[in-house]
Write a structure and sequence with these properties.
346 residues; mainly beta; 2 helices; 3% helix; 45% strand
Amino acid sequence: MELYGRKWKRRELEARVGRIEQIGGVERYTRSEGPEAGVDTFRVRTGGGLCYWVTPSKGMDISLAEMHGIPVSWSSSNGEPHPSYYDQREAEWLRTASGGLLMTCGLSQVGSPGKDIDGAYGLHGRIHHTPARQISSWSEWAGDDYVLRVRGVIEETSIFGEHLRLTRTITSHLGENRITILDSVQNVGFRPAPHMMLYHFNFGFPLLAEDTTVELPKGRTSTRDSDMDMRRMGLWQSPDPAFREQVYYHKPDQSKDAVFARIHSPSFPIRPANTNSHGLSVELEWDPVTLPKFVQWRMPGSGEHVLGLEPSNCWTRGRTDERERGSLRILEPSETVDYRLELRFI
């Protein structure tokens, strides 16, 4: 593996530490106060500068992420409340959504609340507020490569309703600043079930600064609202308390095996001030076959100062709209769909 600017073999590293966790690894914690009391979380350190927190209590989502101790993700004012505080009605999701590097939206509903033949549904679905079962973490050598993994199973169920099962595995490697998310969603029930999936990645200060640029996948673009300025999609700005959120819909070119979006901050402070720095780039890559749509949430407000990059299989107008348009993804009994996403910090 490559670490600290040179190549290492397993035994060379082991000879220099009492435990490999001195360099990096996975540790489990439970929070003890406030709305976060009882929330389970894993801290993953790659040893290359990347540190992130996986939260089994909230759908195996990823909360704070840092490079060299400096945040790259956005944290909401809610903190990370225990899922028992969640109210699924209407837009109450906004009171307990954590922000963080990843909030998963789904599994049977994404976007605006509403009501359809399957019943009432709230904003962005329930999966972000559903605790995982079969939680595990393990670290192991594969030759001279040290692999870090966290896994959990989350189910969205209802008597007489859907039974969808998400199995999530999050993987990093010692010495690398990379996160791979492998998700498998299966309809465990015996009737067809709607399946909506959106990966709500949230980036914040100081990655977002006035000199930050955003590169989006090639394809067709439209706006959710008619008064939006298409010219500002790839730019950032200083906080504005009067700013109203902007949502852009992108349909990436599916001729490639994978597509990516890229954020570059030339002023990101990851090196001492007296050295030359090229800042930080973050690349998000995914498969456009299983996630054919891409939502960009642009919100440089005050407090809500965040950029959302959101690969998805749907837009954000809600399940009724998708059904009426004939674009609602239906999973047949026993059918499984697999998702793979990768984040690289360069």
